[in-house]
Amino acid sequence: MKKVICEKPGLILCADTFYLMIDDVSLYFNIPKKLTDRIIDTVMACDLLRIPNLFWLRFTDFPQEITDHPNFPTKNELHALYKLKGGTAGFQENVMNMVKEQIIIEANLSNRYSLLFFRKIQKINDFPVLKACRTYAVFSHFKEFKVLSMVNMFLLYNMVADEEFLFRTNSLRVFSNKYRLFLNIGIEAFIHKNVSNANAKKVSKKDLDIIMREFQKGDKFSFSKLLRDLNTRRIASGEEQRISKSTVRRYILNSPEFGIADLTREGSDGIKNMMTHALREQPGFAGDQYQIDGTRLNFLYKDDDGKKIGVLYMVVAIDVYSKKVVGYSLSPSETFGNYIEAIRVSVKNHKILPAEILTDNFQSGQNKMFTRFVGDLQSLGIRFKKHRPYNPQAKGSIESWFFLFNEMYLKEFPGYLGDGIRSRRKNGKPNSDLLASARKKKNIRTKEELIQVFTEAVINYNSTYEFKNSTPNLLFGNSLPKHVVHLNDVTLPIVMMESTPRTILKNSVAINKNGVTYEYIIYDSDFLTKYRKKDIIVRYNVIDNSEVLIYDDSGLNLLLRVGLHSRLVNAEVNQSEDDRIDIFKYTQRNKLLLRELTSKVEDYKNSFNNIPINAVDHKIDTKENIHLAEEKYLLEADNNKTSVKGKIGKRDISRIKKLSLKKIDVTNTEEKIVVSFKDMFKVKGSIKRLD
Predict the structure, then answer these.
(1) Neighbours of 641 (CB within 10 A)
(2) Which of 138, 226, 415, 551 could be cross-linked to 537 through a Cys-Cys bond (beta carbons 3.0 to 4.6 Å apart)?
(3) pTM of the entire structure?
(4) Among 98, 25, 75, which Cα is nearest to 55's?
């Protein structure tokens, strides 16, 4: 026999059937507890018994990974252990076998109790009479055996009960309550659904209306909350009897209004989720649609120091037509940057953009940088959309790819942790020994090693996975894309470079990368004068700092390439000969730019010289009266030395008087005034003409 740690393990023998307490299997037989903890999740719920609040399981129902363990006992060893515990394999077992045979016979002859139920119920067609008869026969037979304990009756009932019985339970407490109710009220303990039952008289039509009214509210009250509110109303109205929780639950679920009430309870989200996603025809060419999504890479990694342990998240872009992985990104968290990086990797490898990109509704999808990147893609003609919330089948290609890739290509690598804690697949997780080995620090890979493992798996998948009698690489390469967007030297930076909006105020652009500022000086005078105080888009490479590209505000038209300006050494004692040459070149280029800008300004001024500005013919009319009144007002203000600032639009009175208003002969209606641009340029205010 195997070594037994304790003398009295949780062991029950009933009718030649052994039951073992699950918690004691690990303790008494030295079986890893990780294996026994998973029994509750893997074994069918109907096979687990609760006696009273602990889980028990038949010896023959234990899963294979437990029975194959070398320390798990055989049936003969359990018989020997049962004797050591103090049990007898004689009289008691004979009694259990005899009772089991008799209750099977009683169940088969239970039709004789049909008349008893016919006299108690009103609607025979709606009541399972034959099932109730079998259950009543077994309970009646238990009543005759005074020596049977409640546990023995519970175990015997579970041995014979099947779908032909009125109720089945794996809880000793529920069984004992039912049996005691049978002892108290007899056959009426098996009459359900409030048929000729005292509970039927408790619930009034008003109570039922209140239940459904409260259930359909968007607050989503639980059954316990509904029950508490209902009983509070009944007590307040003078009713002494209370309604049970099972009555409330049964009425709601069986009500003909349950469907519309539940839909009202869920609100607009429930209506949206009820709408199905129609089947779609798959794309006919490579590049018609990319699907992008992210999930956890189920491997542990450690940092370079070996102190921090975590997991990576993979964001993958696949071509739906060929199922090829065209791009991916790995990082410790799933962010908008991973989605951008996956698209850029695909562009770097193939120099094309798909006709359509479909993603999920990830949390950081509303980030300004991501929104700007999506806008750039859309400006190139790409359709970018997100699937409907709570409807992952809309991007079923990428969802199924995650399962396939994990199962066929990642599972073979040591350290794989399985499908995840929510997985219910039988083979979704490795055994406990492999998991324990994967979690040992010496077996955990570094981040670079894990990225290499993932890269090798992707390459292997693209070149070996069989799809449409070919492989993803061949399908993608041999297809003739019809709807993709080909990129050139102007449009490629729109996708591959970072962008930031700026306004031209000075002749330089500063870009900050990881706390370091890089300066790019513009020496093109034509560009500066044309785009001064206008919005532009600056695109830059995160890795390469040699230059930036300046686009117009649409982000599509390349205007200028500007090289990096190296920092000048400030202290002369630290300057080398090359530094002095750089400073000299910088000074000369600045002087040249200054002369060019000054010259352009002067040329612009001179272009207005001697251009006549026709004053309006002065006549004795309303306009003449206005000008006479204005001139008089200015002269009076000057004589009285009073400030009229603010009354005439913040004009400078002293400079306005320099205009030759007093030289105008208002009686000469044919007089024209010629004013040079220089004179007008010196005047503050908004006077544009003299009429």
Answers:
(1) 6
(2) 551
(3) 0.53
(4) 25
- Output phi, psi for 503, to 5 deg: -125, 130
Give the 3-state secondary structure of residue 16: coil
Q: Which value, to the nearest 10 degrees, does the dihedral of the CA atoms of residues 409, 415, 420, 421 take?
A: 160
* Cα torsion through 669, 671, 676, 682, rounded to 10: -40
Tokens of 141: 């037979």
Q: What is the pLDDT of residue 63?
A: 79
Q: Is the pLDDT of residue 49 over 60?
A: yes
Exposure letters 183-206 (e unless 16+ CB within 10 A, then b): eeeebbbbbeeebeeebeebbeee
307 exposure class (CB count in 10 Å sphere: 0-12, 13-18, 19+)? exposed
Give kind and range of the element (H or E) at residue 135. Answer: helix 129-144
218-244 pLDDT, tens digit each: 777 777 788 888 888 878 877 767 777
Q: Which residues pair with 551 in a beta bridge?
A: 537, 558
- pLDDT tens string 427-479: 667 777 888 888 888 888 898 999 999 999 999 999 999 988 899 999 998 98
For CA atoms 422, 425, 428, 431, give the dihedral sign. positive
User: Which of these, 214, 235, 233, 232, lies nearest to 223 by C-alpha position?
Assistant: 214
Strand 535-540 to 498-503 pairing: antiparallel
Read off the pLDDT of residues 89-133 as tens digits, 9 standing for 90 and up: 444 566 566 677 777 777 777 777 777 766 666 555 556 778 888
Q: Tokens in use for 582? A: 């750089």
193 pLDDT higher than 50: no
Question: Are 77 and 85 spatial neighbours (Cβ–Cβ below 8 Å)?
Answer: no
pLDDT in tens, 196-217: 444 445 677 788 888 888 888 8
Query: What sign has the CA pseudo-torsion 667, 669, 674, 675?
Result: positive
For residues 57, 58, 62, 67, the Cα torsion angle rounded to the nearest 10 degrees is 130
CA angle, residues 254, 258, 261, in degrees to nearest 5? 155
CA-based end-to-end distance of the chain: 120
Residue 89 has what pLDDT?
45
* Paired strand residues for 651: none
Chain segment 296-330, per-residue pLDDT in tens:
888 899 887 877 888 899 999 999 999 999 999 99
Task: Give pLDDT, residue 502.
Answer: 92
Task: Determine phi and psi for 290, rounding to 5 degrees.
Answer: -105, 140
Give CA torsion, residues 263, 264, 268, 273, to 10 deg: -10
CA proximity to 137, closest of 178, 98, 171, 105:
105
The SS3 of residue 108 is helix
Contact between residue 291 and residue 328 where contact means Cβ atoms under 8 Å apart: no
Please tell me the distance from the alpha carbon of residue 251 to that of residue 243, in angstroms, as a whole number. Answer: 11
The answer for 289, left when phi > 0, alpha when psi is -120 to 50, beta otherwise, is beta
Q: 73: which 2 tokens?
A: 């006992």
Are residues 553 and 534 in contact, defined by beta-carbon separation less than 8 angstroms? yes
Calculate the CA dihedral of residues 526, 532, 536, 542 and round it to 10 degrees. Answer: 80
